[in-house]
Amino acid sequence: MGNERVEGQLLQQHIVHFPPYLMQKIFENVKEGIMITNVAGEILAVNAAFEFVTGYTCEEVLGKTPKILQSGVHTKDFYSNMWQSICATGEWQGEIWNRRKTKDIYPEWLNIFRVCSADGEHVYNCAIFTDLSERKHVESELEKRKSMDHLTDVSNRATFMQRLNGLLETSQSLHHVQHAVYFIDLDRFKQLNETLGHVNGDEVLMEIARRLRQTLHNKDSIARYGGDEFVIAVANVMSQHEALLHAENMKHVIEQSIDVGTHEVFVTASIGVSVYPSQASTAEELLHRAEKAMYYAKKQKDNRAVLYFDDLMIDGERVLLLDAELRKAIEQRAFEVHYQPKIDAQTSKLIGFEALVRWKNDALGIVSPAEFIPYAEDTGLIVPISEVIIQKVFEDAKRFSSLGLQSVPIAINISSLHFQHPNFCESLQQLVDEAQVDASHFELEVTERTVMNNAAETVATFHELRKLGFTLSIDDFGTGYSSLSYLVRFPLNTLKIDRSFIQQICMQEEKQAVVDAIIHMSHRLNMRVVAEGVEQLEQVELLRELGCDEIQGFYYSKPLSFEEAVKFAQAAL
Question: Are 499 and 478 in contact (CB under 8 A)?
Answer without folding.
Answer: no
